[in-house]
Specification:
The protein is α+β, with helices and mostly antiparallel strands and 656 residues long. Among the domains are: 224 residues, Aminohydrolase, N-terminal nucleophile (Ntn) domain (Glutamine Phosphoribosylpyrophosphate, subunit 1, domain 1, 4-Layer Sandwich); 194 residues, 3-Layer(aba) Sandwich (Rossmann fold), CATH 3.40.50. The chain contains 28 helices and 17 strands. The strands form 3 sheets. Strands 2-3-1-9-8-10 form a 6-stranded antiparallel sheet. Strands 4-5-6-7-11-12 form a 6-stranded antiparallel sheet. It has a 5-stranded parallel sheet with strand order 15-14-13-16-17, with helices on both faces. Helix 6 runs antiparallel to helix 21. The longest helix has 31 residues. It is globular, with a radius of gyration of 24 Å. The two termini are 33 Å apart.
């Protein structure tokens, strides 16, 4: 795991290149404290920077940038290529030789033998930049699910890229301004795929590579999708009458995914919550490692949101050495909230991201650099409450009425805590999504509901700049309709979530960005693409069977789960919102006074100071729990955008 950055100028570089690249690379020191590498070619106009977190090949031979033996291919990598020893042996048989023991080096050999189709040989989570000197061509690549981040700013003469936006913004040719459309999307929580919070800075989409070529002193850009999560058309799922077939396949692929992610030259631990995802990871990792695994668990100071007692039972059953990180108001707000915004480079609706920052810090303090995590299981196996709702509303056509009643009762039981947060208070829809999917997915509905409350908070100048911009339609326009057409409703819900919220939320402020804030690599085993391709073939009725979500996964791992966990309904992992106790309200009030004063709001220019003040007054008087939960989300986003303005825009103005 590392941080990468660099830039390519079509007309060459001058004497400022070394200082510019050093500044960009230094912004990523938290991603790679174990070393720094640079490569500058003034004639080519190319600058490559790398910060190293040494996990495989701890010797200096693994330092980057890497170069092919003939000097024709240059490479910088963030992430891991699994099964790399087999690939190295394969390349050796073809005549290749290696200068390091690094997994990253296989990308050079595979590229030289296969060209861009070499991407299908890569297994893991990665983002990298590869430069082919003979072709005078740059390629930026991001892994299939977007586990590792990669951003870029592009003009006809210049491109800069980096693992984080802050590295891109550090280059003097990249302007720093918060995007008004992105601000509105953040206020409703869901970003448009391929965007960032900043104007002119794009996120390379998951499963894509950007090919950049040069001709006549100008750069040309070609975006390609090399992989996508693909569900079969409705009724075409594999072996629809044989659950054992799918259970066995899921078990086998999950074990392989975990086994590969235990490969490292440093100890590997596990994140452990009270859900079956992380618990199954711990159980199978214990078996594969043939020894107890170090486990890290978050405990909240609110009983309704705390799962640590279940995690403790799982840890005991596996004889794991468990670290429990207990968090309250002082931990989730104040400077920790501000710091998490800086690392995430976007807003978040819940302080779960702050909690994850604390957990990665504890991992680091315990001497660990990497953990295996459970992200992705809900996306692949139908775990979220919103998926259940869509299965009930749209996916049970022709099923007995008794089953529908059972399903509805289960939804009613599980929805109470999440209304206003991840489930809408009342059903809502949007024509763009009704056209795309035949219905508006339930996961999107709470954010549409929120949108109606946040529009009045925008300043007049922001509203004028946005014009008739529709943030909900903008998201729909980025979804490939070919991947939802003729699919089962559950497949549509899972696919659209995975293309938006998985990459923009779960893997961002719930994953890589807060983990790497403390120089710690997370490895989500469920997002191994071999396992994903098996999961998409499972009939919807096996993913959600009756009122039981993730049924196939439960059956695949039931042997390592305590009975209470095997039978437990999905509980969304969230931190207690601010309204749940007076201490959190007080800490939020401190942040309000620091970042939401009328003068600071007017200075940032995004919001109307009077309307924000009225919103805060109403929030303090509100008593309805659903309304309070929704207002908590909005307040977190307000604070986040104001903090981003201070940390980046105002800081850039001050620096100049």
């Amino acid at each position: 795991m590392c941080g990468i950055t660099g830039y390519w100028n079509a007309t060459g570089l001058d004497g400022r290149a070394t200082a510019d690249l050093a500044g960009m690379t230094q912004t990523l020191v938290h991603r790679g404290p174990d070393g720094a590498g640079h490569h500058i070619d003034l004639r080519l106009g190319l600058a490559l920077g790398h910060r190293r977190l040494s996990i495989n090949d701890l010797a200096e031979s693994g330092a980057q940038p890497l170069m092919s033996r003939d000097g024709k291919v240059l490479l910088i990598v963030n992430g891991e290529f699994y099964d790399f020893k087999r690939q190295r042996a394969h390349l050796m048989a073809l005549g290749d030789r290696f200068v390091s023991k690094s997994d990253s080096e296989i990308a050079i050999g595979l590229y030289q033998h296969y060209g861009m189709p070499f991407l299908e040989h890569l297994r893991g989570e990665f983002a990298f930049a590869l430069f082919d000197v003979d072709k005078d061509e740059l390629v930026l690549v991001r892994d299939r699910f977007g586990i590792r981040p990669l951003f870029y700013h592009a003009t006809p003469e210049f491109i800069a890229w980096g693992s984080e936006v802050k590295a891109v913004l550090k280059h003097p040719q990249v302007p720093c301004r918060l995007s008004r459309p992105a601000a509105l999307n953040q206020m409703m929580q869901t970003m448009v795929p391929g965007t960032s919070a900043f104007e002119g800075v794009h996120a390379l989409e998951p499963g894509h590579f950007l090919r950049v070529t040069r001709a006549d002193g100008r750069l040309q850009y070609h975006d390609h999708c090399y992989w996508d999560l693909t569900f079969p058309e409705d009724g075409e799922h594999t072996q629809p009458g044989s659950p054992d077939y799918h259970i066995d396949r899921v078990r086998a692929e999950l074990i392989d995914a975990i086994r590969f992610r235990l490969e490292a030259d440093v100890p590997v631990g596990c994140y452990l919550s009270g859900g079956i995802d992380s618990c199954s990871i711990l159980g199978l990792a214990t078996g594969a490692q043939q020894s107890p695994v170090k486990a890290f668990t978050i405990s909240f100071d609110n009983e309704a949101y705390d799962e640590s007692h279940i995690a403790a039972e799982m840890a005991r059953s596996m004889n794991a050495d468990q670290e429990v990180i207990r968090l309250g108001a002082d931990d989730l707000y104040g400077e920790h909230f501000v710091n998490t915004v800086w690392h995430s480079e976007r807003t978040f609706y819940n302080t779960l991201g702050v909690a994850k920052w604390w957990m990665s810090r504890r991992v680091h303090e315990c001497g660990y650099k990497t953990v295996i995590t459970g992200e992705g299981a809900d996306e692949l196996f139908g775990g979220y409450p919103a998926f259940k709702r869509d299965m009930f509303l749209h996916g049970l056509a022709g099923q007995p009425e008794s089953m529908r009643r059972e399903f509805q009762a289960a939804l009613d039981r599980s929805n109470r805590l999440f209304k206003g947060a991840i489930l809408a208070g009342e059903p809502t829809s949007h024509p763009s999504w009704d056209t795309l999917c035949g219905f508006t997915p339930s996961w999107l509905q709470p954010w549409i509901e929120t949108l109606e409350e946040v529009r009045p908070l925008l300043s007049e100048a922001t509203r004028e700049e946005l014009g008739d911009y529709d943030p909900v339609a903008a998201i729909a326009e980025q979804i490939n309709p070919e991947h939802v057409r003729n699919r089962h409703p559950l497949d549509k819900a899972q696919y659209t979530w995975s293309k938006t919220m998985l990459e923009g939320q779960i893997l961002n402020w719930g994953g890589d960005r807060v983990d790497m804030a403390n120089s710690m690599e997370s490895r989500p085993a469920f997002l191994d693409h071999h396992l994903a391709e098996v999961a998409t073939q499972i009939p919807p009725g096996f993913r959600i069977r009756g009122s039981t979500e993730k049924w196939v996964l439960r059956e695949a791992v039931r042997g390592v789960l305590p009975k209470v966990l095997y039978e437990r309904e999905k509980f969304a992992f969230m931190a207690p919102p601010a309204h749940t106790d007076s201490a959190k309200r007080d800490r939020v009030r401190d942040l309000e006074e620091r970042f939401l004063s009328p003068d600071l709001i007017r200075e940032a220019g995004l919001f109307d100071a009077g309307n924000v003040g009225a919103f805060l007054d109403q929030y303090r008087r509100e008593e309805d729990v659903v309304a309070l939960t929704r207002s908590d989300k909005i307040l977190n986003h307000l604070l986040g955008l104001q903090i981003l303005h201070e940390q980046f825009v105002q800081a850039a103005l001050t620096a100049t």
